[in-house]
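Backbone description:
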Amino acid sequence: MNPISDLLPKEIVKKKGSERAELIKFWCDNVLNKKGKKYPPAFIAMKMSGYSIKDLYYLQSEAKDYANRGGDVGKYWWSLFKVNSSIG
């Protein structure tokens, strides 16, 4: 008789981070400062701290739609959050 461990998948899927962390990663990957560098995740997280997960998913879908129509996600970001340009 084989042990149960032989029946289980060899590679266990790692638990992902939180939903908010994944959404922040999306914005970190797509928003660049004036010098063409990515913002730190803490900066993006601070700007999005007041939004619910539902709102963040909506903003992400709007940004992806904007990008699919030929727009720049970074410009969409700046129009949303009116971030102080002296930081970046």
Q: What stands out?
A: The mean pLDDT is 79. Residues 17-71 form one domain. The two ends are 63 Å apart (CA to CA). Residues 32 and 43 are 12 Å apart (CA to CA).
